[in-house]
UniProtKB/TrEMBL annotation:
<dbReference type="InterPro" id="IPR022742">
    <property type="entry name" value="Hydrolase_4"/>
</dbReference>
<protein>
    <recommendedName>
        <fullName>Serine aminopeptidase S33 domain-containing protein</fullName>
    </recommendedName>
</protein>
<dbReference type="Pfam" id="PF12146">
    <property type="entry name" value="Hydrolase_4"/>
</dbReference>
<dbReference type="InterPro" id="IPR029058">
    <property type="entry name" value="AB_hydrolase_fold"/>
</dbReference>
Length: 287
C-alpha cells in the first residue's frame, strides 16, 4: 500500500458524513473516506444517481485501500443533498463541485484528482475548463454530444411539446412522476458547449477518459470525441463494459487508482508545482 504524508490534526480514519454549503445556498451531503492523507480525490455521480451508487462507492473504497482519502457527494437535488432535481444543470453542478473543492482547500487538503461518472464526467471537465487548480481529471462514461440521448427520455417530439406546454413530465414504469423537464433546463443542456470546454482545459491538466464498449446509454464514440478535443488526454476502452461497469468494477478501480497515483509527486506540496504537471507516463491504453 502506498504511504502518503498525513494531516497532523486528523486523529481518526474511517467514514464520516460531511456537509458542504454551495454557492446557491444549498447543503451538499457527502461521505469522506478518511485515511489521514493530505491528498484527496473528489468523486461525482451521474444523472439521477447518488454518491452511494456504483461506481462511486467502489472507487472511494479502492482509493481508501491505497491510503488516499476520497470524498463522494450528492449534487443538489440528488440523494441527500438539498435542492430540487433539474434535468440540465451542467454549469450548476460544476458550481457544486467548486464549493466542495473550496471546502477542502480551507481544510488544507490537496485535491489530487476529480473523478466523474456519466453526467459527473461532464461536471469535472467543465470544472477543469473554468478553474485551473486541479491537475488530474478522470471522465468515466461522460457524454460528449449532449444533443443525443434526449429523445430516448423525452420522446421524438420533445421540442414541439416543450414549446407548447413549457415542460415535459417524465413518467416511470409504475406510472409515477419521476421528474419534470422545463424549457429552461432543456436549454441548459443544449447550450452547454462540451467541445469548447474540452479545448479550453489547460495542457498542464492530465485527463483520462474511460468508457465501455457495451455502454448502451452513452455510445463509445463519445469517448473518441473527448480524445480529439482535450489537449492532454489519455483514452482507455474496457471491452464488454456497460455504462456502470457492472461486471468490470475491479478493472475500472485499478485504472482510476493508477492514474491518480501517477499524478502525485513523491512528496506532498501545498500547491502543485511545475514538476507535478507531467504530460507523460500515462497508463497505456488498450484501444
Amino acid at each position: 500500500m502506498a504511504k502518503f504524508p498525513s494531516i497532523p490534526h486528523v486523529q481518526e480514519t474511517g467514514h464520516r458524513r460531511v456537509t458542504v454549503h454551495s454557492s446557491h445556498g444549498e447543503e451538499l451531503v457527502g461521505v469522506l473516506h478518511e485515511t489521514n492523507s493530505l491528498e484527496l480525490v473528489i468523486i461525482c455521480h451521474g444523472f439521477k444517481s447518488s454518491k452511494d451508487r456504483i461506481p462511486m462507492a467502489n472507487l472511494a473504497a479502492a482509493l481508501e485501500k491505497e491510503g488516499i482519502s476520497a470524498f463522494r457527494f450528492d449534487f443538489a437535488g440528488n440523494g441527500e443533498s438539498e435542492g430540487s432535481f433539474q434535468y440540465g444543470n451542467y454549469r450548476r453542478e460544476a458550481d457544486d463541485l467548486r464549493a466542495v473543492v473550496e471546502h477542502f482547500h480551507e481544510e488544507k487538503r490537496f485535491i489530487a484528482a476529480i473523478v466523474g461518472h456519466s453526467k459527473g464526467g461532464n461536471a469535472v471537465l467543465l470544472y477543469a475548463s473554468r478553474y485551473k487548480d486541479v491537475q488530474t481529471v478522470i471522465n468515466i462514461s461522460g457524454r460528449f454530444n449532449l444533443e443525443r440521448g434526449i429523445e430516448g427520455r423525452l420522446g421524438r417530439d420533445f421540442k414541439e411539446k416543450i414549446k407548447q406546454d413549457g415542460f415535459i413530465d417524465v413518467i416511470n414504469r409504475k406510472g409515477r412522476l419521476e421528474y419534470r423537464v422545463t424549457e429552461e433546463s432543456l436549454m441548459d443542456r443544449l447550450t452547454t458547449d462540451t467541445r469548447g470546454a474540452c479545448q479550453s482545459i489547460p495542457k498542464s491538466c492530465r485527463v483520462l477518459t474511460i468508457h465501455g464498449t457495451m455502454d448502451e446509454m452513452v455510445p463509445v464514440e463519445d469517448a473518441m470525441e473527448f480524445a480529439k478535443n482535450v489537449p492532454n488526454h489519455k483514452l482507455h476502452i474496457i471491452e464488454g463494459a456497460d455504462h456502470e461497469f457492472t461486471m468490470h468494477q475491479d478493472e475500472l478501480a485499478s485504472l482510476v487508482v493508477a492514474f491518480v497515483k501517477e499524478g502525485l509527486c513523491g512528496d506532498y506540496m501545498a500547491l502543485p508545482s511545475e514538476s507535478c504537471k507531467r504530460t507523460s507516463g500515462y497508463i497505456h491504453s488498450r484501444f
